[in-house]
């Protein structure tokens, strides 16, 4: 087993060389937001999608378009609005009067990296069209099914302010996102650097340092990253503590949790921890990897009760208690 782990470790160190260049190019454009950039790479390598919550102007569009440039991928931005239709997203059939036939015109969802801006502004049928594409990785236009690109990732954003007239994503649909990130304002010194960098005559432009083929190879290695049985049990303990808190040393949380995390959370937490370990250049997952990425995987999967809301407690507070209480192997 030790020999196998050493081989995986060597493979990870070899295949993760491009990560340093990728981070360098992203940082040449994006100031600060290191955690968001790292989570973006975790989702990219773990074949997941991200739901990002933050106020306007925090460089969400710039971040994912910059990532697309660095890995030579096609980028598409879709602004969700109340009058958006599913066909505006997926595409539609176009009639050709010359020969009396219909042909499929593909929509903006046929790209590698998608920014679904303010996803909660569009009606449920548009949201479900996007979420179906995310889950099935295919789109049906007319009577034809079209496969989406093999490299396909959605970064959906939600604006925490101006909630009037919005359509919040149902809990079952939130579960399809691997990670939910909460992005805050930059620090003063970071904002000074943003001011200087973005008001220059020629804004910084990243270099292309990888390609989709490199990402596919990295994903294959990520899937081989070793997870010990003790770490697997730790992941299960964390997920089950959201469902059965009393049995896992958190009896006070029982009346505060309405629904715990689903089995999809167990899968995503394991995959995200593997991708996180890969980014650190390691071929094995540690409990610290699980703790580092755990809040981002679980925060949108734990629904608090009315009693918790009355006490002004959020899923963040519940998860903090769980991570502090569940024994680390």
At a glance:
The chain is an alpha/beta fold and 329 residues long. It has helices at 2-15, 17-29, 34-45, 60-70, 86-90, 124-136, 171-174, 188-198, 212-224, 229-243, 263-279, 287-298, 306-310, 315-325, and strands at residues 50-53, 75-79, 91-96, 101-106, 113-117, 138-141, 144-147, 153-158, 179-182, 257-259, 303-304. A hairpin with a 2-residue loop joins strand 6 and strand 7 (144-147).
Give me the secondary-structure category.
alpha/beta
Q: What's the rounded overall pLDDT mean?
A: 86
- The CATH topology annotation of the largest domain reads as Rossmann fold
Helix content: 40-55%
Task: List low-confidence stretches.
Answer: none
Shape designation: globular
| Quantity of strands, as a count | 11
Distance between the termini: 19 Å
CATH superfamily of the largest domain: P-loop containing nucleotide triphosphate hydrolases
β-strand amount: 5-15%
Count of domains: 2
Second-tier CATH architecture of the largest domain: 3-Layer(aba) Sandwich
- Determine Rg (CA atoms, Å): 21 Å
Instruction: Please state how the strands of the largest beta sheet are arranged side by side.
Output: 2-5-8-1-9
Task: Please write the CATH class name of the largest domain.
Answer: Alpha Beta
**Major sheet: size, sense and barrel closure?**
5 strands, parallel
H/E series, N to C?
HHHEHEHEEEHEEEHEHHHEHHEHH
Q: Number of helix segments?
A: 14
